[in-house]
Design goal:
Number of strands of chain A: 0
Strand content of chain A: under 5%
Shape of chain B: elongated
Distance between the termini of chain B: 103 Å
Largest interface: A-B, 52 and 48 residues
Number of domains of chain B: 4
Helix content of chain A: 40-55%
Oligomer: heterodimer
CATH superfamily of the largest domain in chain A: Cytochrome c-like domain
Structural class of chain B: alpha+beta
Number of helices of chain B: 14
Shape of chain A: elongated
Structural class of chain A: mainly alpha
Distance between the termini of chain A: 69 Å
CATH topology of the largest domain in chain B: Chitinase A, domain 3
CATH architecture of the largest domain in chain A: Orthogonal Bundle
Number of helices of chain A: 9
Number of domains of chain A: 2
Order of helices and strands of chain A: HHHHHHHHH
CATH architecture of the largest domain in chain B: Roll
CATH class of the largest domain in chain A: Mainly Alpha
Strand content of chain B: 5-15%
Largest sheet of chain B: 5 strands, antiparallel
Radius of gyration of chain A: 31 Å
CATH class of the largest domain in chain B: Alpha Beta
Amino acid sequence: MPRDGPGLIKDSMSEPLPAPRRRLWIGLAAAAVMLSVAVAGYVLFQAHQAQLGARLLAAMPDDVDKYPDLVRYADAEAKPLFAKNCSGCHGLNLKGRGIGAPDLTDSIWLYGSGVFHIERTITYGVRSGQKKANDITEMPAFGQRGQLSDTDIKNIVQYLLQLNHRPYNDQAAFLGKQAYETKGQCFDCHAGDAKGIIDYGAPDLTANVWDFGGSPQDLYDSIYYGRHGIMPAWIGKLTPEQIRALAVYVDTASKR
Amino acid sequence: MSTPLPNADVAKPAAARAPWLMRWSAAASRRPARPAVLAISAAIIGLGAAAIGLLHPAHRDLAQVPPGDVALVNQEPVLMSDFISETEQAYGVPFAQTSPAERAIVLRRMIDEELMVQRSLALDLPEQDTDVRTALSDGVIALVTAPVLADHPTDDQLRAFYAAHRANYATQGSMSVTDLVLHIGGFENADQSLDQAMADAAQAVYELRSGAGIDFAKQHFSFADTGKVNGEEPDFAARLHLGPRLYAAADKLSDGEVSEPVQDADGVHVLVMQHRQPPVFTDYDGVRNNVYTDYVAAQKAQAKQDNVKFLRRGAQILVAPGQTE
């Protein structure tokens, strides 16, 4: 430390600062360095995330599950997106809310399983008005349109109960099967064995999984009023990467 | 010339021989502001650079296809998802089972299509080609009307719709009716007043209902036969020829009946129904399917109208002087 003494000129610039002020300056400098390190770390983290996002998009949709880091990344990205955009209909737990939005955690898919098909559905929606949407057919309002009588519908409900191994009326179920195969032409979309046709988005009627409720009254209403479930198209609202992440998230949830 | 000291360190202050941190500390004590300012400046520059890197969007590499796309045509991406879907549709098998040659065919077609679309925009076809305009308009309508069917109509809604549009669910009726008129107020050179014409028409109606012939009414009250309905006409034609007010009066008449005097733009009319084949209305249960279809169509039309209203609210529309829309 410089000292005053004989022959030395005292320079105000070389006057040491009081200790508290010196500590302040050193502290500020150290804080700035730490902040720089933190920002640099954040930038590096973001770059890593961007790289994961690019890899997620570049991968073939149905191959993503071969890369655990991509699945983890997609899950983390998609969870808040799902909560914000999808949970209103499908619920935060992905199990649907009983209003026509299906349970996404089971293995039943109206328009095909796997990341690719799920991604297509998210991108273009269901009956969304988009030309590429899943929109081949819908459940007609057989009762309201007068195509099936009240008795016909009740009989078909009994047939559905029989198909799902639930208590049913034997005679009514027999007549319901006839209506299913003739007057109602239900087989046209749901297939002769009632296991549904994915190309049409017509559900399997033997799995005892019902998007609009499975009570006899719910089944009656579905046939009487018809069903016209819709899902909006998310193309243009979410980025391709976000849509891919959501597809992976939902696909993963259905396989747990 | 000075001779260097044998040991230069001896001449240095003690601080100069100390480790770098000590030297820096000593320097900081002598000139406390400079190192701190330098360090903070460096930190600020670093933060600024990092912020620019974070906030400034990365430039798209024009020579590379972005992940998630299968091609880039004049910087317009072709989605890999669409490519997979179209390939599967083209060959009816999963994408993984298609050959590279098959994929190439599909990709070429998609790129060609994208080029054509871009060309159509360059040629301003949306403004010039009626088919393109119709397709674009239809596309918008499809989007805005898609949610209409999500909530199925109730039976009450359908029955109310049926009641309001009952005439749409009836067979076409027909009528043969004579339309007599007393012109007023200078029409066809008539000089009688409305009150006078109404009084004469009322008297004529009485006479006609009492068995007088049409010729008598023409001669005695100076009625003119408009000839608007020529022989037996279907209802839609009679409505067209008579106009809404006279048709409404005629629609209530049966064979041989005479209407009350009806004031219209050209004078006071009296209608004499020669023959009426009324429409046959179908009850609700007989036309449920049609009612449902029409209801949905009406809902879609309403949704379209609402959308147009919305667009109009946000649009600047200027109409040339003297023109109305």
